[in-house]
Every structure is written in C-alpha cells, then in structure tokens.
Amino acid sequence: MAWGSGSFKSCDSLLKRVEENDAKLVELVVLPMKTFGAAECDRLSAAIAHGQNTNLQTISASGHHIPPSSLKRFSSALTYQYQHAINGGITSVAIGSKDMGDEGAVELLGCLSAENGGLLKHLDLGWKNLGKQGFGAVGATFSRSKHMAHLDLSRNNNAGCEGVVSFCDAAKEIFGKGGIAFPALEQLNLTECNIGPVGMQALSDVLLSGECQDGKKRQQRIHLVLRSNLIGADGCPALAALVSGTDGSILSNLQIGQCSIGDEGITTISNAAVSNPCTGLMVLDISDNAITKDGAKKLAESLLVSWPDLVELNLAKNNVGSEGVASVMASLLGSEGANGNSKNSTLKNLDLTSTDCGVDGAKVALTSGGLTTLRLFNNHLGSDGFISIAPLLQGGHAAIEHLDLGGNSADEDAVVALLDSIANVKEGLVNKLAVLEIGGNTFGDKAAEALERLKRVWPKLDVAHDKPVREGEDEEEQD
Q: What is d(CA 259, CA 219) in angstroms, rounded to the nearest whole number?
C-alpha cells in the first residue's frame, strides 16, 4: 500500500511508481490533504491506458475534486485495461468528491457501461451528490457485471425513490428477461439515500427478479445496508420479501437502523418470517426504529422457529423495556416451539443499548446460556442495578465473552461490588468472559484497587473503563 508520501502535498513520487509499474504498489491511497486533481488523475489514467501499469489493483482517492472530463479519461483507461486483457488490473475504485454529481458519475461510467463495468469488483460512490441520472448510470453499467460485488452508494440524499427506481429500471432495461440483475453482488450500501416505500419496492423487485441456471435466485446472499432512510411500515412488505421466501432469504445481513418501521413494520417482517423462515440471514439490525414492547413480542414469536441462521440481532435505541427484552430472551431460553425445538440456539450477539430494559431486563439477558456478546450500554441501571446484577456475574460468565455495561452511571461502590463479584471464583463455573466495558460509570481509586484484585484472578480479562477520578477531583478536572 502507498499513501502518497514525498512532499507534503505532491503526488509526483507516487505517480512515478505507478508509471514505473512498481510491483509493490498494489493499493494506491491518496489522502485528502494531497493534491490530486485533473492533472494528477489524467497522469494516472495515461499510465493505465498505455499499459504501463499492470500491478495496481486498488485506487482510493475519495475527497478530491475531479472534473467530468478527467473522470471520462479515467473510465476510458479502465475500459482499455479490460479490453486488452492485461494481466491483472484495477478491480477496486473510490474516486471523486461530493461535487461529482450526476454529470461526473455519467462520465466515470460511460466507457465502462459498454463492458458491463469491466474488471471492477468494488466501487465507492458514497457522498457524491448523485441523483436520478447518476443512479441510472450505475444500474445500467453493473446490472450484468460478473465481477461487481461491493457497491457503495451511501449518503447520496438527492437520490430518493426517483434515483433508486432509475437504478432498478436501468438494470431491467439493460439486462432484459434472462438471468438475474447484479449476479455477483455481495454488498449494497444505500445508507442515507432518502429512500421511501416506492424505492424500496423497486429495489426488492429487481433483486428478486430472474433465476440462475440452477433455478436459484442467487448464487450468494447479499449484505444490504439501508440505514437512515424513510422506509417506514409501508416499505416493510418489500423488505419482508427479501428476507423471507420459499427459498429463504436472499440476504445474509440486513441493516435497517433508523428507518421508522415501528411496531407495524417489524410485525410485517415477523409474520412473513413465520410463513417462510429467513434461512441464510445471519445479521439483523433494526436499531432506532421506534419499536416498543409490542413489536418486540411479535419478533420474539418468530425468533424461535423462523430465523434458523440468525447470529446477531441489534435492538439498540428501541424503547422495548423490560417486557420486550423478556419476550426476546424467552424465545432463546426455553419456550417450546411448533417444530419441537426448545430454543433458538443460533443467536450469539445481542445489542440492547438504550432499550430502557431496566434492571429486570438486564438480569433476564444475563441469564442467557447462549449469548456470547451482550450490550447493555446506557440503560440507566445505576448503582442499584450494578449491585443487583453482580451476583449473576460471580466468577465471570459461563457463556458471555463480551459484556458492555458502559454508560449506566453506577457509583464507585457499585462498580467495586461488580468487579469483586467477578473476581470471586464460583465452583463449577468455567468463565468465558474476556472483555468487560464499564466506561461511563464512576471509576476511582477504590475501583482501580478492585480491578487489580480482579486481574490477579483473571489476568487475561480486558476491562475498559474511564480514567480514574481521584478523591477531591471531578471528571471535568480529569479531562
């Protein structure tokens, strides 16, 4: 990897290495403080187009203003490299700045479109101010690509439903009726693209359309990131179709945090999961979606039998309360399911940050025998909460390896009680606890001494805590 060394702003030495086909220069990273504009981009393009460089695989030059004319030359260079079957070639690109816009995107993809994106496997067009035309160009270029696996279109707020529909329509028009669109796609990031129900439906339709030769929808499942969009409950039927079908989910990971789906939306998804289990979906992030205990209960009802591969669930910033947490944990701890299974045994990582779970919810979560990571950050457990859960952590924990109790405003005596309980070895318990986070709780000299005692018992336990507050000092004086 080269980071654009040499004089502080110049890229001259770096570009010389590209022109000389330096075998060690496989990944080119041009940091934002460097000068990389039209002249530098044209020089890079010339080295690629003339066949001077065959070793470079990755170009990362985001944050630099590149005019459309230079982006066009860069596109032509990548196309030349593909057409002339040069050994190796550029497979990963992140280039341009937020002023790229539709004009720049069209020029960047213009030559590549005729070659279905050439060799590109990774493309980062995040925060490039793309709209309808730019999204359409992306869809037209890569819908038939046998290489494009990771596509980042995040933070293009101007796209909206119109942009996503354009992306999908272009894919349908170019690809026609045979096969599937974006056949090699493994990850698609559409965070903060102002996508609503109409755009969500269009995306769902294009990703579900067509079949492979073996009759399957796709050869690999997709990691889909849709955080901070306006999907709402009305967009959840389209989401449900992606995660739940007769062949299971076409997604491996779904991140829909802050998408305003609410109880109605999670109910739609959960009901669909009951009808057709979400086989293959391993990660579900539904954080910050105004889900309450009622929505949590609906999700819990489906967890037992309908999410057979789910490993990670993020419920953070949903006010599900202790009742909601209890419902979810019950599906993991022993409710007899319709298929005879006694519990969901696949879920390992659970994020309950800022869920208002209370002490009761925390205690229920800590009694899980299956979780390996549990986050209880910022749940207002306070000193009484720490003292209440301390006995549950005597000698550590038999299953949980990473426990986050940060941001709960416990006083120092309560922190000491917790640490001393973990240090108190419990007969017959094989401790798995490896990481403990207790920042955001008072940590002074007494807590530091308790930590020393703990370390003598569990020397490999990593404890993250705040800088100690000495007696007579306050936290502001320590900063």
A: 28
Question: Which whole-number Å values give the CA distances from 49 to 4, 44, 81, 257, 293, in the listed order?
Answer: 21, 9, 6, 42, 59
Closest by Cα among 97, 4, 1 to 58: 1
Q: What pLDDT does 479 receive?
A: 47
Q: CB–CB of 181/207 below 8 Å? A: yes
pTM for this predicted structure: 0.94
Taking only the tens place, the pLDDT of each residue in 177-193 is 567 899 999 999 999 99
Residue 116 has φ and ψ, to the nearest 5°, of: 55, 40
Find where tokens 């490999």 sit.
460
The number of residues making up the chain comes to 479
pLDDT at 1: 53
Secondary structure letter of residue 2 according to DSSP: B
Q: What is the per-residue pLDDT across 181-231, written as a single tens digit (0 to 9) for each?
A: 999 999 999 999 999 999 999 999 999 987 765 556 688 999 999 999 999
Q: Are strands 349-351 and 27-29 parallel, antiparallel or unpaired?
A: unpaired
Distance in angstroms (rounded) separating the CA atoms of residues 376 and 355: 8
Contact 313, 347 (CB under 8 A): yes
